[in-house]
Design a protein that fits this description.
This protein has 108 residues and is mainly alpha-helical. Helix content is 98%, strand content 0%. The model has no long low-confidence stretch (mean pLDDT 92).
């Protein structure tokens, strides 16, 4: 009988120890889950910030590309106008030369 009481007491102590271990492990698990949730939220926030930055940079790039395209059109228009100007100047020079030669030959 004393032996039975001793075994029951040892089992009760073992049971209490295991309950304490389980409580400790449950607390550790809750802390780990909370830590993971915090990390996940921080990661999601960083991802969102990165997406917003990428969107902003894409808008800026599109604006730059539009500006470059406008400047290219403007440059092409200026080149065309300059070409026309030089063609007119060359035509005037040729006309002046021809007129001079015509007048010179008439005076002979």
């Amino acid at each position: 009988m004393d032996e039975d009481i001793k075994i029951v007491e040892e089992l009760r102590q073992s049971n209490e120890y295991q309950k304490a271990q389980i409580l400790h492990l449950e607390k550790a698990l809750k802390l780990a889950i909370a830590g993971q949730e915090e990390v996940r939220m921080m990661s999601n926030n960083e991802i969102q910030k990165s997406k917003e930055m990428i969107e902003d940079l894409n808008k800026r790039l599109a604006n730059c590309m539009s500006t470059i395209e406008s400047k290219n059109v403007e440059l092409l228009n200026l080149q065309t106008a300059l070409g026309q100007y030089f063609a007119e100047v060359e035509a005037k020079v040729i006309f002046a030369s021809v007129s001079f030669m015509f007048c010179w030959s008439c005076s002979l």
